[in-house]
Design goal:
GO molecular function, one term: glucuronosyl-N-acetylgalactosaminyl-proteoglycan 4-beta-N-acetylgalactosaminyltransferase activity
Number of domains: 3
Largest sheet: 6 strands, mixed
Subcellular location: Golgi apparatus, Golgi stack membrane
EC number: 2.4.1.-
GO cellular component, one term: Golgi cisterna membrane
InterPro entries: Chond_GalNAc (IPR008428), CS_glycosyltransferase (IPR051227)
CATH topology of the largest domain: Spore Coat Polysaccharide Biosynthesis Protein SpsA, Chain A
Mean pLDDT: 85
Distance between the termini: 77 Å
Helix content: 25-40%
Shape: globular
């Protein structure tokens, strides 16, 4: 019995062994909590039973504070539980939240810039400001007192219709408050004869608190006024905070009627001082507003004073040429500062890397740039593209050799010049190199660091004594990825109605039923805001026999069944007779039958419509800004891919056996107004040569005849089953060739084709 009891005890212990740490932890935690509770209870009893009268409260402290409760000034720190209550008598209303968190949290844009100009300087100095610093500011507007002024290209002008300086300032402040007062934190006012360092001004506002009333600029004394009061000189620009603008706006009318002044900057300064009690300052929160006053006949290239190099604003600028020279000089100063900062950072990186376990071997080249990507398998190896000064041996169309031209040629030329320049910088004055020939060139794009180059250069090296020698030298260069820039885009919503346009030919009849079923299931059943228009393309022979035999009768019957099933849905169709179904000509017909604000989705019969893609179509298409050409995913031929095996049905592998068809431009999302604008420019270019339209697609119209962004991206929401497309030989050679390539590349991958050939050879050999 003792042995049996010991065995049972051992079995129990072995069963409890995995839970033993948990039990010990629970026991220890309970013990510590009980011990702490007893200590706290004992301390409270001792405090309550302490002899003697209670200590008097501190002098000036409220009674609540003496009892350990927060005083009247601390109500904000008291937690409050707000119970949820909904009146049952009132209908429930869904709370609509903003799409972007920035809007909901009340964030504002950083900086708004206003430039005051006049009739005499609108086409000179104002244009110079626009060409030098305007693109560095997030938002810049020009204000003038002219009536119906002709606006120079690329400028946004606000004309008030009164050239009196005080009136112009008054109207400008009113306009800024009305249109931008709730959108921006800072407002920078400058004249068109002022050169402002845009990057320095933007850096200044990032170091200032937006909670204070700020009136910052070059402080000047009023003539015959108070010695303590200052106004900001308008020639050097000045900065106003949003809080100050909001407080100033109610007093602008009083200032206009009560304050007399000749200079608009003095008038504004007096208005701010009289009604807000705020004077102009040249430094605030440790930030200085540096300015520099230009003398006559100044040579910006020879200015080496520290005051000039540190200036945020320079005034007065007398002509356009001086403005451009100032911009060039300040750009050179800023570039030198950046290069010096890069060198200092690289030195610090070298010094710190020497203290790491890897030592000096851990320093990457170039210093401060990410190390090259290390592939984990042969499938992740980034290949190098070979090039010479005339040809590229890795072409976009897949051909083995093509002429080096366009941006690629400019890129290669710049890299060679940079390589020779760097060599001369390293070896001068002992040697001076000049390029004779590029022997070999290699480049590849590394997503972790940028574009990498390896050049074999044939150089001529000349010494100080005049001797020269020809040698070959290999150099490596990196064009690193620069700072990521967020491009501002107009606000769009997912509530826009999408008008689907489906062109159909006789060859497409076998696929219409599946398209209509997917359309009904993914849009009509879900009540998505989408409509469908069918475009029946009749051959002239079929059009003559439409009274006896209508080739699209079956499709029209399917449409009738859908309209019976969904009573509120109407699916119209348009009949067209043509031998060459040009995409542009068909779109011309559809465009005339829809309003200008219609969002079109030009679909193909193999497209399977779903809500996910329709939302992306709405978000990626912006009126008067951007059109969207998705690249659909084309599944391979299942006969070649699976060869009798069961088709993969896993949802995670739905994009595995296929490819994104970059040769197809059949699907497109665009607004009718944008298409009509581009189509008008095309009509003026081709005149009456309608045969040109047969060689064009809608993509070509937007590419060559609109200034819109063309957004072309892979779209996993558009998946098309494999089918052999019929390529119309009547289309242009380029369109026909593109269709054939789409069919060939859509058969299968190289590995699948190789396996099919191998099995065929095995079968033939046996």
């Amino acid at each position: 019995p003792a042995v049996a009891a010991a065995m049972r005890l051992g079995a129990v212990l072995s069963a409890l062994r995995p839970a033993l740490p948990l039990l010990l932890g629970l026991s220890l935690g309970c013990s510590l909590s009980l011990l702490r509770a007893s200590w706290s209870h004992g301390a409270a009893e001792e405090r309550c039973l302490a002899p003697g009268p209670p200590a008097p409260p501190a002098r000036g402290a409220p009674p609540e504070a003496a009892e350990g409760r927060p005083g009247p000034g601390h109500e904000d720190f008291r937690p409050q539980i707000v119970p949820y209550y909904r009146d049952p008598n009132k209908p429930y209303k869904k709370v609509l939240r903003t799409r972007y968190i920035q809007t909901e949290l009340g964030f504002h844009e950083r900086l708004f810039v206003a430039v005051l100009t006049s009739k005499a300087t609108l086409n000179t100095l104002a244009v110079a400001v626009n060409k030098t610093v305007a693109h560095h500011f997030p938002r810049l507007l020009y204000f003038t007192g002219l009536r119906s002024a002709k606006v120079p290209h690329g400028m946004v002008l606000v004309a008030h219709g009164d050239e009196r300086p005080i009136w112009l300032m008054y109207e400008t402040m009113n306009y800024i408050h009305q249109h931008f007062g709730s959108d921006y934190d800072w407002f920078y006012i400058m004249q068109d004869d002022t050169y402002a360092q845009a990057e320095q001004v933007k850096a200044l506002v990032t170091h200032l608190s937006i909670n204070q009333d700020v009136y910052l600029g070059r402080a000047e004394e009023f003539i015959g006024g108070d010695e303590q009061a200052r106004y900001c000189h308008g020639g050097f620009g000045y900065l106003l905070s949003r809080s100050l603008l909001l407080k100033l706006h109610p007093h602008l009318d009083s200032c206009r009627n009560e304050i007399l002044s000749v200079r608009p900057d003095e008038w504004l300064g007096r208005c701010i001082i009289d009604f807000l009690g705020i004077t102009c300052v040249s430094q605030l929160q440790g930030q200085h507003y540096h300015t520099y006053e230009l003398a006559k006949n100044t040579e910006p290239e020879k200015e080496e004073e520290e005051e000039f190099q540190a200036a945020l604003a320079v005034h007065p600028v007398s002509d356009m040429t001086l403005m451009y020279r100032l911009h060039k000089q300040f750009s050179r100063i800023q570039l030198d500062r950046v290069y010096q900062e890069i060198q200092d950072l690289q030195m610090q990186i070298r010094n710190l890397t020497a203290l790491t376990p890897a030592g000096e071997a851990g320093v990457t080249w170039p210093v401060g740039i990410n190390a090259p990507f290390l592939p984990k398998s042969r499938f992740e190896v980034i290949s190098w593209d070979y090039f010479t000064e005339q040809h590229l041996f890795s072409c976009p169309d897949g051909s083995p050799k093509c002429e080096l031209s366009g941006a690629s040629k400019a890129d290669v030329s710049e890299i060679i010049e940079s390589a020779v320049e760097q060599l001369n910088r390293l070896y001068q004055p002992l040697l001076r190199f000049s390029k004779r020939q590029l022997l070999n060139g290699y480049r590849r794009f590394d997503p972790t660091r940028g574009m990498e180059y390896t050049l074999d250069l044939l150089l001529e090296a000349a010494t100080q004594k005049g001797h020269s020698h020809v040698l070959a030298k290999r150099v490596s260069l990196v064009r690193p990825l620069s700072k990521v820039e967020i491009i501002p885009m107009p606000y769009v919503t997912e509530a826009t109605r999408v008008q689907l346009v489906l062109p159909l030919t006789v060859q497409d009849l076998d696929f219409v039923a599946n398209f209509l079923d997917m359309f009904a299931m993914n849009t009509l059943d879900t009540h998505d805001n989408a409509l469908l228009t069918l475009l029946f393309i009749y051959h002239p022979y079929d059009a003559q026999r439409v009274g006896q035999v209508d080739v699209f009768a079956g499709v029209k019957a399917m449409v009738g069944e859908l309209e019976k099933r969904y009573a509120e849905v109407k699916i119209p169709w348009i009949s067209v007779k043509t031998e060459v179904p040009s995409q542009v000509k068909l779109m011309d017909i559809v465009s005339k039958k829809h309003p200008v604000d219609t969002l079109f989705f030009l679909a193909s019969v193999w497209t399977e419509i779903n809500m996910e893609f329709l939302n992306r179509c709405r978000m990626n298409t912006i009126s008067n800004w951007q059109v969207f050409f998705p690249v659909h995913f084309q599944e391979f031929n299942p006969t070649l891919v699976y060869r009798g095996e069961q088709t993969a049905s896993s949802n995670t592998d739905f994009l595995r056996d296929g490819h994104f068809d970059r040769h197809s431009f059949a699907e497109a999302c665009f607004y009718n107004s944008d298409y009509m604008t581009a189509r008008t420019k095309l009509a003026a270019d081709i005149l009456d040569r309608d045969e040109v339209l047969e060689s064009m697609e809608v993509f070509d119209v937007f590419l060559h005849y609109s200034g819109l962004h063309l957004f072309r991206a892979v779209e996993p929401g558009l998946v098309q089953k494999y089918t052999l497309r019929s390529c119309n030989p009547r289309l242009s050679e380029e369109l026909y060739h593109r269709c054939v390539l789409s069919n060939l590349e859509g058969l299968a991958s190289r590995s699948h084709l190789a396996m099919a050939l191998f099995e065929q050879e095995q079968a033939n050999s046996t």
